[in-house]
């Protein structure tokens, strides 16, 4: 409702829904909101990898004429075993990503590999070995985002974090420590997508979807649940293919991006996405980050709202809504003059996703 | 059928494509799924080669020697039954006899600092009856 008020669109004008990670029940939404008829209803497969991609489904529906106003809602409530133990086989019916009937998942169990933190630990450790990446860079990510969260009302983690605090934090799964992990939470968000023509007449500055892509390379496949990716892309975020396609479709370069909302379930994965999205060369994110480039006054400010590490974890969607705020100039911790925003989906099993948004003024 | 029941007790639900791996593991050995057409190994085992799109499979028996590709020390007990187990070492092990694939394994009997990328390991079957995929160190990491 508040998204409709914000845009100046009647909630009954919504005729489409686009989701990711299972989404929200479209029938329930339609009956609850009193919508005459739904003409488009689609979801990206996979999990958090698609968080930046439901916008692309919505834009495709608008462009093809299948719908006129598409809502991309995300609501997240945690019941039973938490996401931290997503692949565990015990708990209430197993973790949220535990798949009882998957013969592939069987290969995670004989080594008690149950947690995303452990899986991303394996990827981060390889990156450190291959490129000399250090925990100092992970600390820079965590501390920068904490500083940003402190300037953003509603953030869950607002205690100042020093370098000493970071290195004193207990280790979860080497090299990932407590402060490298996102803050699990609950919440909801929604973005409305319509034609640019219609958006121009609405209340707020329209934001154009320059490109929104999803998918990814077969060599990445199930990613963290597979761990048999070829060495060339093992210590990556799995986003290289879609990043290239996204920039091509948008017709812009990494240097044209003013603010980046980067999926930060684990701090090391921010570094790997900085590489895959072309802000620095492959293997050079350690120095890039330590040079201060992701800070508010750096070359590419990242997650000015504090991201999922310190603001809150909505499986990526709070990054999407903040990207919209930033290009409209409405961020609580605003990047000065931001016109173009990148928002990425989770480094996860395919599909992964990425979007570029630009304010139309 | 007994094998399937035993595996189900362990929370494992193989298909015809993965069963030979688990049967071998329970019997105290490792095998890898290899394309009978192009020779490419694949893990997990499946009925289709991503390299040449053929479906014929041969099972390569492995001598168990391998190298650590990456590792992590699990220190947080994410579930009640793991709280007594931490810390334990999880590693991705590349196998000498099956280039191109990795097994997700535990490294047993290792001290902190000994588990390293590049360290030589060998399969250990003391927990074979529980279908565990375990290795122990057999040398030190190459510099
Ligand atoms: Zn083949």
TrEMBL record, chain B:
<dbReference type="InterPro" id="IPR012340">
    <property type="entry name" value="NA-bd_OB-fold"/>
</dbReference>
<dbReference type="InterPro" id="IPR022002">
    <property type="entry name" value="ChsH2_Znr"/>
</dbReference>
<feature type="domain" description="ChsH2 C-terminal OB-fold">
    <location>
        <begin position="59"/>
        <end position="123"/>
    </location>
</feature>
<dbReference type="InterPro" id="IPR052513">
    <property type="entry name" value="Thioester_dehydratase-like"/>
</dbReference>
<dbReference type="Pfam" id="PF12172">
    <property type="entry name" value="zf-ChsH2"/>
</dbReference>
<dbReference type="Pfam" id="PF01796">
    <property type="entry name" value="OB_ChsH2_C"/>
</dbReference>
<dbReference type="InterPro" id="IPR002878">
    <property type="entry name" value="ChsH2_C"/>
</dbReference>
<feature type="domain" description="ChsH2 rubredoxin-like zinc ribbon">
    <location>
        <begin position="22"/>
        <end position="55"/>
    </location>
</feature>
<protein>
    <recommendedName>
        <fullName>DNA-binding protein</fullName>
    </recommendedName>
</protein>
């Amino acid at each position: 409702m508040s998204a409709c008020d914000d845009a100046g669109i009647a909630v009954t004008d919504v005729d489409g829904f686009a989701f990711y990670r299972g989404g929200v029940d479209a029938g329930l939404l339609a009956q609850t909101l009193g919508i005459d008829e739904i003409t488009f209803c689609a979801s990206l497969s996979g999990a958090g990898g698609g968080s930046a991609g439901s916008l692309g489904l919505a834009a495709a529906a608008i462009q093809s004429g299948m719908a006129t106003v598409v809502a991309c809602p995300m609501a997240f409530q945690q019941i039973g075993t938490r996401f931290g133990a997503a692949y565990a086989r015990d708990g209430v019916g197993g973790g949220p990503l535990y798949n009882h009937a998957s013969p592939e998942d069987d290969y995670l169990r004989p080594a008690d590999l149950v947690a995303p933190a452990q899986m991303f630990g394996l990827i981060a450790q390889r990156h450190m070995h291959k490129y000399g990446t250090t925990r100092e860079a992970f600390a820079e990510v965590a501390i920068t985002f904490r500083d940003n969260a402190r300037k953003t009302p509603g953030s869950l983690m607002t205690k100042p974090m020093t370098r000493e605090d970071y290195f004193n934090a207990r280790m979860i799964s080497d090299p990932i420590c407590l402060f490298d992990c996102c803050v699990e939470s609950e919440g909801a968000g929604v973005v409305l997508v319509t034609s640019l023509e219609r958006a121009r007449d609405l209340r707020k500055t329209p934001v154009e979807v320059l490109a929104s892509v999803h998918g990814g390379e077969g060599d990445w496949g199930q990613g963290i649940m597979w761990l048999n990716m070829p060495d060339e892309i093992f210590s990556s975020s799995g986003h290289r293919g879609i990043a290239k396609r996204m920039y091509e479709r948008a017709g812009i370069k990494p240097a044209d991006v003013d603010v980046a909302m980067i999926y930060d379930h684990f701090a090391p994965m921010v570094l790997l996405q900085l590489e895959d999205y072309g802000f620095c060369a492959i293997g050079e994110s350690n120095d890039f980050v330590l040079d201060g480039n992701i800070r508010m006054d750096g070359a590419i400010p990242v997650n000015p709202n504090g991201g999922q590490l310190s603001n809150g974890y909505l499986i990526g969607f709070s990054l999407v809504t903040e990207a919209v705020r930033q290009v409209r100039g409405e961020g609580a911790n605003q990047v000065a003059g931001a016109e173009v925003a990148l928002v990425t989906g989770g480094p996860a099993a395919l599909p992964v996703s990425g979007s570029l948004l630009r304010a139309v003024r | 059928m007994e094998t399937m029941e035993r595996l189900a007790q362990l929370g494992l639900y193989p298909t015809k494509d993965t069963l030979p791996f688990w049967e071998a593991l329970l019997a105290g050995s490792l095998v890898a799924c290899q394309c009978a057409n192009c020779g490419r190994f694949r893990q997990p085992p499946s009925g289709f080669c991503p390299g040449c799109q053929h479906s014929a499979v041969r099972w390569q028996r492995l001598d168990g020697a391998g190298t650590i590709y990456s590792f992590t020390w699990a220190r947080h007990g994410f579930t009640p039954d793991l709280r007594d187990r931490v810390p334990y070492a999880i590693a991705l092990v590349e196998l000498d006899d099956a280039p191109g694939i990795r097994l997700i394994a535990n490294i047993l009997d290792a001290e902190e600092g000994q588990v390293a990328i590049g360290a030589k390991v060998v399969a250990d079957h003391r927990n074979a009856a529980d279908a565990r995929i375990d290795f122990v160190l057999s040398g030190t990491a190459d510099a």
